[in-house]
Specification:
Layout lengths: L1 E5 L2 E5 L12 H6 L2 H14 L7 H16 L3 H12 L4 H21 L6 H10 L2 H6 L1
Antiparallel strand pairs: 1-2
Helix pairs in contact: 2-3, 3-5, 4-5, 5-6
């Protein structure tokens, strides 16, 4: 197991470890089972001591965003690239994209509708590091 230092925190990475500030290799990521992807994200957050109300829900959103990035879904890739250029680290950029995704999913569940892909893409195009930092 390799240990990487990120700031003052150490992250343990196994052979299939998830490192959100680097991002997984697309082919290797997509070759994992969905459960394998979720497990690697949960393991990262638990080993990094990141507390949250539901690590599994958080991991699911991370996984969807990473899947979209690995599949080269252009609006998501563009949003990630823009957010990183604007100063977010990759992990925070994934969180910012995940927040937009979560809003779309919440709306779809609340109104029992299909998620609106065009609205998701439009919201991603309007997302900025400044907006994300402002909450």
């Amino acid at each position: 197991m390799k240990i990487r230092t990120r700031g003052k925190r150490k992250t343990r990475l196994g052979a299939q470890g998830y490192e959100p500030d680097v991002g997984p290799a697309p082919a290797a990521w997509l070759a994992l089972t969905e459960q394998g992807r979720l497990d690697s994200i949960v393991a990262y957050h638990e080993s990094d001591g990141i507390a949250m109300p539901s690590v599994h829900a958080h991991a699911a959103i991370h996984a969807v965003v990473e899947n979209q990035l690995a599949e080269r879904l252009e609006p998501v890739v563009q949003a990630l690239d823009r957010l990183v250029r604007e100063g977010l680290d990759r992990h925070d950029a994934v969180h910012a994209i995940g927040s937009v995704l979560s809003e779309q999913l919440f709306r779809a569940l609340k109104y029992e509708e299909q998620p609106d892909t065009e609205e998701y893409f439009r919201s991603l195009s309007e997302l900025s590091a400044e907006k994300w930092r402002a909450g």
